[in-house]
Design brief:
Blueprint (H helix, E strand, L loop, with lengths): L2 H37 L7 H26 L6 H28 L1 H16 L1 H8 L1
Helix pairs in contact: 1-2, 1-5, 2-3, 3-4, 3-5
């Protein structure tokens, strides 16, 4: 295949990851504000679980946005650029595996986001391998 086409597909998945991560960040912040306002009128003892869920969603969105931005702006074919691409791809795959494992316990809808990202990442796996040659 054409290396430019491989780069295009990698950038597309990077853009999707960046966009989904940004949406997840906004949703997390809005849900947290809503939870804080609702807790002002009620008494709840499940603060620790809420904090863990907030940190998990925040870390997931940060990883998705960071790795997505890196994939989106990948330009070169040199050894360091290709190694950076491979490491970014691997980091995002590992993060999404953790999301798929912990998602059903903490935030069940986030599991679907992790599974979608894994499908997209494995769809561009061939492009990453071809650029590594």
């Amino acid at each position: 295949m054409n290396p430019q086409r491989d780069l295009q597909s990698i950038r597309f998945v990077g853009s999707l990851s960046l966009g989904i991560g940004a949406v997840l960040l906004v949703i997390t912040l809005l849900a947290t504000l809503l939870a804080l306002f609702s807790l002002a009128t009620t008494t709840s003892t499940n603060y620790i679980r809420g904090i863990i869920i907030f940190i998990f969603a925040l870390l997931t969105s940060a990883v998705m946005m960071g790795c997505g931005a890196e994939l989106q702006t990948h330009k070169g074919y040199g050894p360091s650029e290709v190694e950076n691409l491979r490491l970014t791809w691997t980091a995002l795959v590992l993060a999404m595996i953790v999301v798929c494992i912990l998602g059903p316990i903490l935030i069940p809808p986030l599991t679907y986001v992790g599974a979608l990202m894994l499908v997209l990442l494995f769809a561009i796996r061939g492009a990453v391998i071809r650029l590594s040659r």
